[in-house]
Amino acid sequence: MKNLMIFCKVTAFNVSVNRLGGSFGGKFLSSLVSSGAAAIAANVTGRPVRLNLDLSANMKNVGKRWPLLAKYKAGCNKDGKLVAIDIDLYIDSGHLPCITMDLLPLIECAYHSPNYRITYQKAYTNKMGAGPVRGPGQIPGCLIMETILEHLCKESKQDIILMREINLQEDGQLTITGKELKNVTIKKVWNRLKQTAEVTSRQEEINRFNKNNLWRKRGLAMTAVRYDMEWPALGLSAHLSIFAADGTVTIVTAGVEMGQGLYMKIAQAAAYRLNIPVDYIKIRPNQNNVTPNPFITGGSTGSERSVASILMACDQINERLQPVREKFPDADWKTLVLTASFMAIDLSAEATQVNRGEETPYSTYMAGVVETEVDVLTGEFQVKRVDMMADFGESMNPVIDIGQVEGAFVMGLGAYLTEDIYYSKETGQLLNDGTWEYKPPTTKDIPIDWRIHLLPDTPNPAGVLSSKAVGEPPIGLAMGALLAIKQGIASAREDATGNQAFVPTNAPLTVEKAQMTSFIELSHLHVG
């Protein structure tokens, strides 16, 4: 009882969230342990408490993506058109229930099958509970679907790129969850990318390279993704204040800036709607006593939901300033707001844009072409070139959006190629809890030649300012790197052993795994 009274004596919390540095996923749920411990200590001692975790403790606490095993059956007709897909999923949930809500709608990527049967079972183990990280459903979803297509092509001896192309989704088709697709642009994205990336000629060049090289092999994969953007019922509020003395506009938003450009897009939107230079706009840290009851900043839509709210607040200000503009049509911004303040006009506003009538108002479509080169003897690889085409509607800020594409893709390279994890079989404890054993992507993993294109003239009628959200869709395209490496390994395996059989995909396809799937033996190594 004494402890309970100590815990409850503080009845008010002021929480301020500054700009975070690259915080996708890890600080969503796992941060509650650290923040709760700090709050209790502060409450008991009556003093400010700051809690810093070292890298090892942080990695053990945060958890990782949930491992899964997929067993599948799939069929297509003689033309390569998908007929049916049957998948049984077994998910290692750790000691906590896992969040799988976005795996089902994203497992089909941007391909259509008229018939699906999917079951999944959760296995509770003694491991740390997994947590949602950027593209939590898309990473395993793309791995499963692209593996199924690769396997089908291998068995039916069809061209993998053509099979993907004829199965791309179209308007009017139903998704795996029964939603009717509208404004589908993936075929336009695909065809434009196929031409600009010179896919056909590069495939021929890669075939020539592989014929002339025994131990270094290249591969090229072209893949597509669809990502459904969800607007939760709860919004991200925004508060706007104008200081009459110099015209400065300060904004506090419930959305959290974590490197995705949320603050910049808010500033641009406010400047656009108020018709003033962006230099007047100042973004202040997130504060719960100014923008209370926020929902999570996640699902890629945090920026646009915040922008939608600030646009509503700006509309309130414009409505109040309209009589002043009519009376003083030549007044500049500083004069306008100063005059309005002397007229006792309220120069602050707040608004919350909630669900816009449909929980999933639109989808973002992307396609990518990835070319890799692998050293068969060591398994080491290089991502030689990446071409990407994205339908982002009318981008609010192309520089930010392209940066998001780059960051998501490299994060995907880590998930699919390098970031393997190891647990103690006895205790379930994470064993590789530092960068000596845990391998995130580094400078050498970044594509050597990177070309990112935005599909022109495609405004999004369901988006904020005709734009689309961008944060998570690109991550699934990194699956192309894994597939391209597998192609190179398959070429070497066929040269050395004559084996053309399909090899199941085991991600992440680390250097060690890549070399082992080549089936190269000592007897294959000889001189002269």
TrEMBL record:
Where is each Aldehyde oxidase/xanthine dehydrogenase first molybdopterin binding domain found? 14-168
Q: Name one GO molecular function term.
A: iron ion binding
Q: Which domain of life is it from?
A: Eukaryota
State one Pfam family annotation: MoCoBD_2
Domain Aldehyde oxidase/xanthine dehydrogenase second molybdopterin binding, residue spans: 193-447
Name of the protein described by the UniProt record:
Aldehyde oxidase/xanthine dehydrogenase second molybdopterin binding domain-containing protein
Organism, scientific name: Elysia crispata
